[in-house]
């Protein structure tokens, strides 16, 4: 595990974007596992800027997103499909048929999950997986008590996640109660895992996840045993960690 300390959100975003850009420069046909949420927004903004300057080329890149709300059509302004188009894909030269996100509008759980696992396999697995972290330690939408060996599956979102994500919707009632998520298995099989975290509100869970016991109660804790795990976090998110980094 490698921890990179950033000064603030902007610094965290640039450092993480640098790691992703380096991955794409070194391996132009990389498979990137991408994440949504507020934390990666600065990274995507930075990557778009570098793309526009001609520094990074996404023409051979493939992306597989972590998750999608079950029951939200692509066009919904809070679908993760929509999030990715607006914040990244519309602004770079990635090919539309190289972009994968679980199909939230398909209610057939078995079909969606099997299709997504087949996709991950057919693209040859993930080179670099980007992750945020939920307040309860979830990664993707792998909520506490998730079995570590799972493939793509449908989850019931916890109250804590619904509460955290309601800020993006008109009301709490509008937040979908279920989501499709890539399983921990595919995340752990990624060649490299890059987690980003910022702000004091993440300090407690970062400490528990990375320095506490490895337990399904804190899904992110499994990353402690990943062979190439990097956390880029700002000072505030690292404020509970008392070991020297
Ligand atoms: C959602 C996403 C996660 C993300 C988490 C934290 O639940 N499914 O992938 O890591 O939110 O979001 P934020 O970065 O806004 O704190």
Characterization of the model:
The chain has 245 residues and is an alpha/beta fold. The protein has a single domain (2-234), classed as Rossmann fold (3-Layer(aba) Sandwich), CATH 3.40.50. Helix content is 31%, strand content 17%. It contains 7 helices and 10 strands. It has helices spanning 9-26, 41-53, 80-87, 109-122, 159-165, 184-189, 203-211, and strands at residues 2-6, 31-34, 62-65, 67-69, 99-100, 128-131, 153-156, 178-181, 192-197, 229-234. The protein has a 7-stranded parallel sheet with strand order 1-10-9-6-2-3-5, with helices on both faces. A 3-stranded antiparallel sheet has the order 4-8-7, with helices on one face. Helix 1 (9-26) packs across helix 2 (41-53). The termini are close together. The mean pLDDT is 96. It binds 2-amino-2-deoxy-6-O-phosphono-alpha-D-glucopyranose. 2-amino-2-deoxy-6-O-phosphono-alpha-D-glucopyranose is lined by residues 35-39, 66-67, 132-134, 140-141, 161, 165.
